[in-house]
């Protein structure tokens, strides 16, 4: 039995999230079907983490076990010929049985993109939140910095969370103005959050709170108080799913990196 690791990119618009659901139409369903069409094997695909309905991935990492002897270097092209055009395998490699896409991960980075222009970009409308009202981006950066470090993020997760602990560590955060590098992206900003793990709806709730800060409805100084309250029911805005992308997952050097 071989264990294969793959890096997968997808547009989550048409799907009910990554994980298999009773009604089907998930990223996991499509990947498992592609493997079955290719090899005849029925496999269980394991991901680095679930993404919700409408959320995208630039560098999702998966693994599965197979008895197929197809060389690892041929898997990406073979899978892509059997996948919908909004799911792409970028890389495939054989790994040790000890590798686990979720439990071996050291850091994950999510990115949330906001178009802060008067009008949306019709070509990118499914990958970025259009927010035409002015935002104070410096205040949002200050608020984001308060979230760095180890905290109990109960106040930034859904009350539906089933995790035993809500303590997570945020290693790095930043907000980039994409227009600084490309004229076509004037007024478009991308929020990056890197941590050791994330709770259900955590990043979308962080972004929702940042938007409230940017609009002047909250002060950045309130963030420590919200964290300390550890209240999953506190009033908060949850940003729309379509602006969120699982950007990359990093492992120990021996496991490789999703970039």
Describe the structure.
Strands 1, 2, 3, 4, 5, 6, 7, 8, 9 and 10 form a ten-stranded mixed β-sheet that branches. The radius of gyration is 19 Å and the shape is globular. The chain has two domains: 2-104, Pseudouridine synthase I, catalytic domain, N-terminal subdomain (Alpha-Beta Plaits, 2-Layer Sandwich), CATH 3.30.70.580; 107-248, 2-Layer Sandwich (Alpha-Beta Plaits), CATH 3.30.70.660. The model has no long low-confidence stretch (mean pLDDT 94). 20% of the residues lie in helices and 28% in strands. It starts with a strand and ends in a 9-residue tail after the last strand. With 259 residues, the chain is α+β, with helices and mostly antiparallel strands.
Topology:
Elements: E1 2-10, H1 27-39, E2 46-47, E3 56-66, H2 72-80, E4 87-95, E5 107-115, E6 129-130, H3 137-145, E7 149-152, E8 167-177, E9 188-195, H4 202-214, H5 223-229, E10 244-250
Parallel strand pairs: 3-10, 5-6
Antiparallel strand pairs: 1-3, 1-4, 2-3, 5-9, 5-10, 7-8, 8-9
Helix pairs in contact: 3-4
Catalytic activity: uridine(38/39/40) in tRNA = pseudouridine(38/39/40) in tRNA
InterPro entries: PsdUridine_synth_cat_dom_sf, PsdUridine_synth_TruA, PsdUridine_synth_TruA_a/b_dom, PsdUridine_synth_TruA_C, TruA/RsuA/RluB/E/F_N
Pfam family, one: PseudoU_synth_1
């Amino acid at each position: 039995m071989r264990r294969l690791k793959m890096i997968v990119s997808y547009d989550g618009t048409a799907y009910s999230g990554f994980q298999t659901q009773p009604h089907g139409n998930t990223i996991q369903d499509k990947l498992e079907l592609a493997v079955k069409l290719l090899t005849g094997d029925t496999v269980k695909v394991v991901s680095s983490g679930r993404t919700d309905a409408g959320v995208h991935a630039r560098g999702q990492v998966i693994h599965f076990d197979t008895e197929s002897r197809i060389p690892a270097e041929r898997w990406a092209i073979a899978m892509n010929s059997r996948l919908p055009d909004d799911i792409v395998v970028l890389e495939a490699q054989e790994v040790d049985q000890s590798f686990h896409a979720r439990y071996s991960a050291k850091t994950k980075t999510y990115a949330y993109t906001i178009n802060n222009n008067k009008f949306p970009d019709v070509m990118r409308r499914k990958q970025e939140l259009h927010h035409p009202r002015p935002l104070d981006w410096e205040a949002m950066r200050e608020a984001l910095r308060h979230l760095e470090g180890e905290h109990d993020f109960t106040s930034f997760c859904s009350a539906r969370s089933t995790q035993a602990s809500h303590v997570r560590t945020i290693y790095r955060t930043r907000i980039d103005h994409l227009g600084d590098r490309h004229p076509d992206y004037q007024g478009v900003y991308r929020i990056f959050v890197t941590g050791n793990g994330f709770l259900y709806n955590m990043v979308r709730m962080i972004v929702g709170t940042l938007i409230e800060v940017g609009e002047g409805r909250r002060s950045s100084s309130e963030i420590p108080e919200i964290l300390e309250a550890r209240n999953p029911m506190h009033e908060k805005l949850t940003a729309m799913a379509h602006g969120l992308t699982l950007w990359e997952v990093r492992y120990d050097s021996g496991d490789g990196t999703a970039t």
